[in-house]
Design brief:
Layout: E1 5-10, E2 17-22, E3 25-28, H1 32-43, E4 48-51, E5 86-88, H2 97-100, H3 110-118, H4 130-142, H5 156-168, E6 173-174, H6 204-210, E7 214-216, E8 219-226, E9 234-243, H7 254-257, E10 263-268, E11 271-274, H8 277-287, E12 304-310, E13 328-329, E14 343-346, H9 352-358, H10 364-372, E15 377-384, E16 391-395, E17 398-405, H11 410-429, E18 434-436, E19 445-447, H12 453-466, E20 475-477, E21 504-505, E22 507-509, H13 524-546
Helix pairs in contact: 1-6, 1-13, 4-13, 5-11, 11-12
């Protein structure tokens, strides 16, 4: 078992220290991509250090309260595009997004893989590619992915989505999940206290630690150390990072609490793997001196628009978030057989705070009535595979904050509204007496006469004409992708098909930022599968660089 070598040097003030670390590989980020790479490289016998700026939240310490759980998210979950039109949710904790996601575990769709081959020249995704197929199978097996849905364990939204789709003859399917069929948990967005969901902290990161990897939490990478120019291409020398002392704040939001700078880390490494997510990976690459024009560009966010329905006959004693979070979905408006661009209908997990945030505000009385309907209201979301693209960069006034630009194109707006209107039809068909959207410009709801189809269509026409205009309908995003995309040329991409940056030898990227385009479904399995392939490239790089077996070293 290999362990990195650490030397602790006391410098300056009494409570200050500088830590020097010697490793074969430093991995920045412990989420879907970083965890997989850490496991594969450590199990091959190399010395691995994983840097995670967020905290570790043991299951015994999970409180399952909305307010306190914001520490598990980037910027305390208060992160938006610059114009405020979309709220972005990204995990910032040990395990990253896998710790707080809702367990949906779709393989890379065939139409997406076809696009990545034909449009981006990435042969590894070709249909029938046994290697990538085998990798996805291996990832799903390690994550415990299964596709059964124990119907008594569905929550209100999933049950109504299934019921309405079946009534209308629309597609409805079971969501593959990395949790058991009877997993009755509506709190996984705040961490899975039962441990039933097989997040990275219960799978790949455990494998990495058992193989000798060292994981440093509350430790923020600042930049990659680059070697001098060698044959027109630089190499990596290591990473500079900083860590909170034991007395500093536990928040994962560095900007809201600040870093005290008492602990500095200087790490030497033969390989550096950026897996800080599609929001921070491009910022760190830019900060480290990389200049590829595509770094930070081509941001896709899977914009999500919610719709809701009130079911007066639903049982009052069951909360709408209780039960399996995501068990059913509809691809009726996803256009998988044609363009591949559209939107899927899925079910979110909304607790009272999130519910209030996404419901329209039409005055105090209406707001109180809305909250009184909480336990009998089901939400659906139209998750859009966007052609729109934005950008992410470091805020010029605060290096610990992000500047995110994103503007939704008309074609994506149309796809999103198509699916949202289908969602409203589904809710009506499943028995809702009141339906609506989060549109803040007027009462976007209708007291339904289910025998009057004209009334419903008139309301849908109103929704289509009035929603998603001038940021009047709040959008959400839990999937950010594409800001360091993979390709076959530095003129069109940031990393090559092996995951290595075009500019720096030994510097790899292994997270959703390498996606050439949006996937249209939860990206976890795709991120882990690509990261697994990248880890094999990293292992070949390490072998070719040294022509020696992995180095032996003592334990800490």
């Amino acid at each position: 078992m290999m362990m990195p070598r650490l030397a602790l040097l006391q410098v300056g003030a009494k409570n200050s220290m500088k830590i020097k670390i010697d490793a074969d590989a430093v991995i920045v980020g412990s989420g879907a991509g970083g965890s997989v790479v850490a496991a594969q490289i450590a199990e091959a016998g190399y010395k691995v250090v994983v840097l995670e700026k967020g905290r570790h939240f043991p299951r015994t310490e999970l409180h399952l309260l909305e307010g306190r759980s914001t520490d598990m998210y980037e910027h305390g979950s208060y992160l938006t595009t610059n114009d405020g039109s979309a709220m972005l949710f990204a995990g910032s904790n040990l395990g990253g997004g896998t710790t707080v996601n809702w367990s949906a575990s779709f393989k890379t769709p065939a139409h997406v893989r076809k696009e990545w081959v034909t449009e981006f020249g990435l042969k590894m995704f070709e249909e029938g590619s046994e290697h990538y197929e085998e990798v996805m199978e291996r990832v799903c097996e390690r994550m415990g992915v299964q596709q059964e849905a124990a119907q008594p364990h569905e929550n209100l939204g999933n049950a109504m989505l299934r019921k309405g789709c079946e009534a209308m003859g629309m597609h409805v399917g079971n969501v593959p999940r990395n949790s058991a069929a009877d997993h009755y948990c509506g709190w996984c967005g705040m961490g899975c206290k039962s441990g039933n969901k097989k997040a990275a902290g219960r799978t790949w990161l455990l494998d990495a630690v058992k193989a000798g990897a060292v994981i440093l939490t509350s430790c923020e990478a600042r930049k990659v150390i680059l070697q001098q120019q060698r044959q027109h291409r630089r190499g990596v020398a290591g990473v500079i990072a900083r860590s909170r002392s034991s007395g500093s704040s536990s928040s994962s939001s560095s900007s809201s609490r600040g870093w005290n700078g008492q602990v500095e880390l200087e790490m030497s490494a033969r390989v550096v793997v950026m897996a800080a997510g599609a929001l921070w990976t491009p910022v760190l690459l830019r900060r480290s001196g990389l200049r590829n024009e595509h770094i930070g560009k081509n941001l896709h966010i899977h914009p999500v628009l919610s719709v809701w329905g009130y079911f007066p006959d639903a049982p009052s004693h069951v909360k709408p978030y209780e039960g399996g979070i995501m068990t059913s979905f509809s691809a009726h408006a996803a256009n998988w057989e044609t363009s591949g661009y559209g939107a899927v209908l899925m079910v979110p997990s909304l607790h009272p705070g999130g519910f209030a945030a996404f419901m329209p505000w039409h005055g105090a009385m209406d707001g109180k009535l809305s909250m009184l309907r909480f336990s009998k209201t089901a939400h659906l979301v139209a998750l859009t595979r966007d052609t729109s693209s934005g950008s992410v960069s470091e805020d010029k006034d605060d290096e610990d904050r992000l500047s995110i630009e994103y503007k939704m194109r008309d074609v994506d707006r149309s796809h999103c509204l198509d699916a949202a209107c289908n969602g409203l039809r589904v809710l009506a068909a499943s028995g809702a007496s009141l339906i609506g959207t989060p549109n803040v410009d007027g009462a976007a709801q209708a007291q339904l006469d289910l025998s009057n189809s004209t009334q419903l269509e008139e309301f849908l026409a109103y929704v289509r004409s009035s929603s998603l205009r001038n940021s009047n309908s709040p959008l959400g995003s839990a999937h950010q992708m594409g800001t360091c995309r993979m390709g076959v040329s530095p003129s069109t991409s940031v990393v090559d098909p092996s995951g290595e940056t075009w500019e720096v030898k030994g510097l790899f990227v292994a997270d959703t930022s390498v996606f050439p385009s949006a996937t249209g479904v939860n990206p976890m399995v795709t991120a882990q599968s690509i990261a697994f392939c990248t880890s094999q490239s990293i292992l070949r790089f390490l072998l070719n660089k040294t022509h020696d077996p992995p180095r032996q070293s003592s334990r800490l």
